[in-house]
Amino acid sequence: MAENKTQATETNVDDFLATVEPAQRREDARAICAMLARVTGEPARMWGAAIVGFGTYHYRYDSGREGDMCRIGFSPRKAQTVLYIPGGFSRYETLLARLGKHSTGAGCLYIKKLGEVDAGVLETLASEAFDYMRTAYPGVSGQ
């Protein structure tokens, strides 16, 4: 079976964040990183080339594919910041309705500017998503 492409690396998170462009996205990324560290109590760690993740869990699909991934994370892309919110968005409908300007995809929350969303609602959403992952996938923690 092929090895998972996205794995934890030893890349320094602060060094990675310093390279994010444009400058506003870099500042947003630093704020999101600090918020996720606070909510999760886990250290930030790079996953692959561009995902900043918090905590670790082990998954195993019915197909037999398995691996490790961060419990919650984000990637500051050039056009927008992507937050990887596990567990599906239906459980967060009330929060998403109050969040502000955003869009969603399969497990991804897209934000163009952090200033366009309610930071308190985003923090609550991140906290609830991380708690969900701790319950759904107990065991492996921050590394």
From TrEMBL:
Please report the name of this protein according to its UniProt entry.
DUF1801 domain-containing protein
Tell me the Pfam families matching this sequence: DUF1801 (PF08818)
At the top level, the lineage of the source is Bacteria
Q: Where is the YdhG-like domain?
A: 25-129
Give the source species.
Sphingomonas hylomeconis
